[in-house]
Design goal:
Layout (H helix, E strand, L loop, with lengths): L2 H18 L6 E2 L3 E2 L3 E8 L2 E8 L5 H16 L8 E9 L2 E7 L13 H18 L9 H16 L2 H11 L1 E3 L5 H10 L6 E3 L8 E4 L6 E5 L6 E3 L1 H15 L5 H13 L13 H21 L2 H4 L3 H12 L3 E3 L1
Antiparallel strand pairs: 1-3, 2-3, 3-4, 4-6, 5-6, 7-12, 8-11, 9-10
Length: about 325
């Protein structure tokens, strides 16, 4: 299919869905394909909108409703979150679509994150957590999500073929294939007070910046499909696991200092004790192990050493003595 033909089909699709929302697009932007959706920007009247066409998956409707409930709640409190136009979710063939208000800004690569980007990232998460702590949203328990991930990892790493492939193809070995200690870590999270909604995917692709501003300014936080209920340290740990690996021009210690201490805790000082505990470190380690597992699960082992994100993840796990070199 030619590009012109594809663009014509996509324009007709946007037009047909927008008519159901009572809108007539006059100007279109280039579609943007994400992991779970395809985004179509357009102008109707004097307003700019985004139409998201979601990926076919069994739980799509549940995930969209979850994301919309969190995003709308935050947007109604003047936080820069993606907000629905009227809340309707429309079926398009065997896919689902939803119309959102336009959020300005761009995503930037982790490599471009400076000290000021990291500080803004942390302070905006603190603001988001503060607003969400005042809501009564119903979301899955984050511990249940983590337990399910841990169960998958345990099955995978207890396969003799996996352990042999790690040793032969990657010259790596787990320091232990018994991950039961992390089940204890997850259970300990349940004992913490101050449970509230969390984003749980507060990463580069879901953060929009105004790069024309004098200082890095976040203009949008999107994609709340993974939102869950738990202690804020879990959200911070999830983001820090990404930052430690992907901000290659910042050491993990500097990334943590700017994001967590200069940014987040400067706006949420009451959480400093919880985020200086061994529990916090263990949750970060659990996310790093899960990211390592996902690399192994979805890529040929032979190609992994060509992926600098994988190499940095493995190196960090070796440094933490969760992996060892052979």
């Amino acid at each position: 299919m030619s590009l012109a033909t594809r663009e014509t089909i996509e324009t007709k699709l946007v037009d047909s869905v927008c008519r159901l929302y009572g809108l007539t697009p006059t100007t279109y932007t280039i579609p943007n394909k994400g992991y779970r959706n395809r985004s179509y920007g357009f102008i109707a009247g004097k307003e700019h909108y985004n139409l998201l066409l979601y990926k076919r998956e069994a739980r799509a409707l549940e995930l969209i409703k979850r994301a919309n409930s969190v995003g709308d709640t935050l947007a109604n409190s003047r936080f820069p979150a993606r907000q629905t136009v009227d809340g309707r979710i429309i079926r398009v063939g065997n896919r689902l679509a939803c119309l959102y208000q336009y959020i300005p800004g761009v995503t930037i690569p982790w490599e471009a994150y400076t000290r000021r980007h990291l500080t803004e990232l942390g302070s905006t998460m603190a603001q988001m957590h503060h607003l969400l702590s005042k809501t009564s949203l119903i979301l899955p328990a984050v511990e249940d999500v983590l337990k399910a991930q841990l169960a998958e990892m345990s099955v995978y790493f207890n396969q003799p073929g996996v352990l042999r492939a790690l040793q032969i193809k990657l010259r790596l070995a787990l320091t232990t294939k018994d991950l039961v200690g992390y089940a204890v870590t997850i259970d300990e999270l349940k004992t913490l007070s101050g449970r509230q909604p969390l984003h749980m995917d507060y990463v580069r692709g879901n953060i929009l910046f105004d790069e024309s501003a004098a200082a890095p300014t976040i203009t949008g936080v999107i994609d709340f499909e993974k939102a869950a209920m738990g202690h804020p340290l879990v959200d911070a740990a999830r983001t820090l696991a990404f930052l430690a690996v992907d901000c290659k021009y910042q050491t993990p210690a500097r990334a943590q200092r700017y994001f967590l201490h200069t940014g987040y805790l400067n706006n949420a000082a009451d959480l400093e004790n919880e985020m200086s505990t061994n529990l916090f470190t263990q949750v970060i380690n659990l996310f790093l192990l899960h990211d390592f597992y996902k690399f192994l699960l979805h890529n040929p082992y032979e190609a992994l050493n060509e992926n600098h994100h994988f190499r940095r993840t493995a190196a960090l796990l070796v440094q933490k003595r969760l992996l060892r070199l052979l």
